[in-house]
Amino acid sequence: MRRVTPTPFPDGPLVDAEDLGALVRAARTASGLTLEEAALSAYVAKQTLQNLEKGTGTVSLALAFKVMNGLGIRLSWQVPSDDSGSGGTDAT
């Protein structure tokens, strides 16, 4: 059996495909799963999982969520407040 070395989880909020891939890889390796094992458990191709972890290719959002759910990853988000200057509409 292959030994899996855990990788660190990314710092800060997720902002791009590479950060999401790092999160998926960290969750997979923390669980001790190989690429093959995780792909089988999430019902995706090994290459799809590898592309997701590297932040390359054209992995669909649906497949990314399928993998994250399979690995037990739950995302949360924060909506910017109106006073932050980002987002929201001006109703004046």
Automatic annotation (TrEMBL):
Residues 24-78 form the HTH cro/C1-type domain. It holds the Pfam family HTH_3. GO terms for molecular function: DNA binding. This is Putative transcription factor, MBF1 like protein.
